[in-house]
Amino acid sequence: MAQQRLDVVTIFPEYLAPLDLSLIGKARRDGLLDLHVHDLRDFTHDRHRTVDDSPYGGGAGMVMKPGPWAEALEHVVAQGSAGEAGGAATTGAGEPARVPTLIIPGPGGERFTQQVARELADEPWLAFACGRYEGIDERVYEWAGERMPVRVLSLGDYVLNGGEVAVLAMVEAVARLLPGVIGNAESLVEESHEDGLLEYPVYTKPAEWGGRHVPDVLLGGNHRAIAEWRHEQRVQRTAERRPDLLPPAAASTALVDLEERVATPADAPDLQVLTRACWAPEFARYGMFGAGEEDLETVRAGIQEWDTRVWRRDGQLLASFRVRPHPTQEATWQIGRLMVAPYLQGRGLGRELLAYAESLAPEDVGTFWLNTGAKSTENLRMYKKAGYRVRPGEGEFPGTVDLTKRRSPA
Ligand code: 6GU
């Protein structure tokens, strides 16, 4: 079974002691989790083991110095290639992971959600950098970003004193998704946030307690009625406590309610922005550094070479794709740049766009072809669900895979 390696760098190693307890502790003892905690002060060289200093430009508090961080992270990265007994993390394919994905917890980060937890559970190796004080010198983020994928993640809109408590939360959320950590896979599926609704209320014996009764429906054996009641409770509870999780009633997100146009060169600037917005998180996450920066000239050329479609609402570009006959492959329809504005993702729009892109193919087309990041798990999930199969080997671009699907006979 694959093992996930975790490295945590902190000035309070004892803060991570709870990771020896309960299910997470058991996962470690079972060898599913390989956790290493490092003391940042071990990477200082002065008598006082100094990790912070006053901020340039003035202001409150102290800032963590870059030097110890770089040394600590270099030490962590070196563990990957060191081949120390059982030390090196391996990918799903069994190759050693060369660098970890670095997580820097902080209130200024991208929101840590169940979706992010799933993405992190897919990674063979995670490193966590726990900041304290007013934060870490900005150059550490740049330095690390040139060496490994970096994600700055926040638990929510409030401020903690440091990243340690956040790391406890994130490690618990991620580790319980690893195969083998929780015995019953179903208990993972039937959960708050797994499908966008909060959990239903639960009861156990006695059926009457202090004059309070367990709802009748749960005492009968009508499983269908129970399932319906529970679903109703979930919707009601979500509406009361987390209305933000329910699909917005007013703003429709169906494709048919948006204005479709064939793109012209005038759409290039907006398309460039949408492409960056869609790709930047992937690049950061999966470490395709520096790739994917297209200048306006290239975007304009793409509009000429493909049939590019754009969808706008109130002038704002919300979605796009481009299609054309494959330049070299016979009877093949190329679908590219299927993009949905980040805030509209996860609602099935991409799926709708894909079906529409396929419907534009001329009659003689027998195969649909597209290309995506080899590690873009959400894209791959959607394409596979739509009937696409990953072609063996590397895709058209480094770090990508090609996918194809036979057109079903009309
Ligand atoms: Cl991840 N870190 C800190 N220091 N404060 C936070 C947070 C993280 N998430 C919310 N507040």
TrEMBL record:
<dbReference type="InterPro" id="IPR016181">
    <property type="entry name" value="Acyl_CoA_acyltransferase"/>
</dbReference>
<dbReference type="GO" id="GO:0002939">
    <property type="term" value="P:tRNA N1-guanine methylation"/>
</dbReference>
<protein>
    <recommendedName>
        <fullName>tRNA (guanine-N(1)-)-methyltransferase</fullName>
        <ecNumber>2.1.1.228</ecNumber>
    </recommendedName>
</protein>
<feature type="binding site">
    <location>
        <position position="131"/>
    </location>
    <ligand>
        <name>S-adenosyl-L-methionine</name>
    </ligand>
</feature>
<keyword id="KW-0808">Transferase</keyword>
<comment type="function">
    <text>Specifically methylates guanosine-37 in various tRNAs.</text>
</comment>
<feature type="binding site">
    <location>
        <begin position="155"/>
        <end position="160"/>
    </location>
    <ligand>
        <name>S-adenosyl-L-methionine</name>
    </ligand>
</feature>
<dbReference type="InterPro" id="IPR029028">
    <property type="entry name" value="Alpha/beta_knot_MTases"/>
</dbReference>
<dbReference type="Pfam" id="PF01746">
    <property type="entry name" value="tRNA_m1G_MT"/>
</dbReference>
<keyword id="KW-0949">S-adenosyl-L-methionine</keyword>
<dbReference type="GO" id="GO:0016747">
    <property type="term" value="F:acyltransferase activity, transferring groups other than amino-acyl groups"/>
</dbReference>
<dbReference type="GO" id="GO:0052906">
    <property type="term" value="F:tRNA (guanine(37)-N1)-methyltransferase activity"/>
</dbReference>
<keyword id="KW-0489">Methyltransferase</keyword>
<dbReference type="InterPro" id="IPR016009">
    <property type="entry name" value="tRNA_MeTrfase_TRMD/TRM10"/>
</dbReference>
<keyword id="KW-0963">Cytoplasm</keyword>
<dbReference type="Pfam" id="PF00583">
    <property type="entry name" value="Acetyltransf_1"/>
</dbReference>
<dbReference type="GO" id="GO:0005829">
    <property type="term" value="C:cytosol"/>
</dbReference>
<dbReference type="InterPro" id="IPR029026">
    <property type="entry name" value="tRNA_m1G_MTases_N"/>
</dbReference>
<dbReference type="InterPro" id="IPR000182">
    <property type="entry name" value="GNAT_dom"/>
</dbReference>
<dbReference type="InterPro" id="IPR002649">
    <property type="entry name" value="tRNA_m1G_MeTrfase_TrmD"/>
</dbReference>
<comment type="similarity">
    <text>Belongs to the RNA methyltransferase TrmD family.</text>
</comment>
<keyword id="KW-0819">tRNA processing</keyword>
<dbReference type="InterPro" id="IPR023148">
    <property type="entry name" value="tRNA_m1G_MeTrfase_C_sf"/>
</dbReference>
<feature type="domain" description="N-acetyltransferase">
    <location>
        <begin position="258"/>
        <end position="408"/>
    </location>
</feature>
<comment type="subunit">
    <text>Homodimer.</text>
</comment>
